[in-house]
Amino acid sequence: MIEKIQFSNEDKKNIMLEQYKLILSSLDKLNDIRELANNFWITINIAGVSAIAYLKDQAHLSNANKSYIIYTLICIGILVCIGWIRNLYVIKQGINVRNELLISIEKQFSSKMFTTIIDSVHQNGVKPSITLSQMIVPLIFLFAYLTFACLSIFKKSILLF
Asked: Is the pTM of this model over 0.70?
């Protein structure tokens, strides 16, 4: 049978402080992951859009092969953008959970620095998590792929150059 461990008030404060530091560190790592991931997603999408633009001008490819390759790249690009948006959403959820944990731990402290910062940011109309403005880049790429898809479906002009 497992016995419940009893901590003194001082031990509880030290444990909470260590948890607080751990969550802050985790929050920093999440932001680092988001920045690194954005570079990855941007590189993949630039390669995809560039490949589509390059392939449409290739005369040595038959129209059937060209259309198959371009349609495949468009579908892959759309899926990559959806994955990117999903990745940002998961990171946003992680940031929000960590923010809530930090605020709840701070309720036990006499100084509430993180809560003050979050409240100040909210009063200025800014959200401390991922916002729509940070989702614009994947949406721009998604729009580019959808534009390529519309052009290739309705006008076929993308394939005939």
From this structure: yes
